[in-house]
Design brief:
It is built from 14 helices and four strands. It has a two-stranded parallel sheet. It is globular. About 45% of the residues are buried.
């Protein structure tokens, strides 16, 4: 598959952002909120794809990292009075540092053991959210989180403003991920994914590449969590479970297309809209997720991205990756 030039990928992403932003001005508040949540999960999925799709390591600790960013933002803004714009980079730095520590521990293993170790970390993180009520609010959740400050020159409804913030974070994440995977570190991550033993034999900096991918993914997971907390004004441990967020992230990336960056965005769009369509029968959401995963794994293992690429080749353009 031929990689699309970087400037074209960025230009297409900017056009898509502009169209989505314009769309938020015409939708009602409910659909704008759905777009907002979809953009936040798309941000998570793109960050997760850098690790899973380009390095080949399945982390089940990202739900806890997402939650760490959310609770850190809640504490910094509501209890310590910091502006959201000051708290946001601090949350990213905190989750990046936590991700680096997890990576140093987890990368002592590989394969199934790596997944199991990160699963344990994810479970510990969720349990800490439950048993530290003075910091997290415990089972009752954390209430009264201030929303992001809106500049006076941007005269739009608060719901629209939140959607624009979420879409902007998604655009920034996508562009940063593109730059990462096109860098030397990104090439080294791909080499690690394809054949770890060969990569080591060729003198590739395996440890540095894996650490960089995990840290990058953790930083943007924390930023997404911080924005989610600030927009929602309420968070609870149930939003950051391994079987909830962790499973959903895997579904977004697999259904969208691992190792494409833009595929997980499509997966997030589909799997965010799905629960809304099944709201009359909410218990069917997880069942629908499972059925979709089975369908894509069996019939389109490279996800929605592969289907679009095949269609592009048939039209005559030649399928391309970002």
């Amino acid at each position: 598959m031929i990689a699309m030039p970087l400037h074209k990928s960025v230009a297409i992403a900017a056009i898509a952002f502009a169209l989505a932003a314009a769309g938020t001005l015409t939708l009602n508040d409910y659909f704008v909120y759905v777009v907002t949540i979809g953009a936040i999960f798309a941000t998570l999925a793109v960050a997760f794809d850098v690790l899973l799709g380009f390095t080949g390591y399945l982390s089940l600790a990202h739900g806890a990292l997402y939650g760490l960013g959310a609770y850190a933002c809640a504490l910094l803004t509501s209890r310590y009075g910091l502006s959201f714009w000051v708290a946001l980079p601090l949350c990213g730095a905190l989750t990046g540092a936590a991700g680096a520590l997890i990576a140093l521990l987890a990368f002592r293993t590989r394969g199934l053991y790596f997944a199991v170790l990160t699963l344990g970390i994810g479970l510990i993180g969720h349990q800490l959210f439950l048993v530290l009520p003075n910091l997290t609010g415990g089972v009752g959740g954390f209430v009264g989180i201030p929303g992001p400050e809106q500049p006076g020159w941007l005269a739009v409804h608060a719901t629209t403003y939140y959607a624009l913030l979420a879409l902007t974070l998604l655009l920034v994440t996508f562009v940063c991920a593109l730059l990462f995977v096109r860098s030397r570190l990104g090439a080294e991550c791909l080499a690690v994914r394809e054949d770890l033993t060969l990569a080591q034999a060729l003198g590739i900096r395996v440890a540095s590449a894996r650490l960089a991918a995990f840290t990058f993914s953790a930083v943007f997971a924390g930023l997404a969590g911080a924005l989610f907390a600030s927009i929602s004004s309420f968070i609870a441990p149930e939003s950051f479970t391994v079987l909830g967020t962790g499973f959903q992230l895997v579904a977004l990336v697999v259904v969208g297309g691992m190792g494409t960056l833009w595929g997980p965005i499509l997966g997030a769009a589909l799997l965010t809209a799905l629960p809304e369509g099944l709201r009359v029968a909410a218990t069917l959401s997880l069942l629908a997720y499972g059925v979709l995963l089975l369908i894509f794994i069996i019939f389109a293992p490279q996800g929605i991205a592969s289907l679009i690429s095949r269609a592009a080749r048939r039209i005559g353009g030649g399928g391309r990756e970002p």
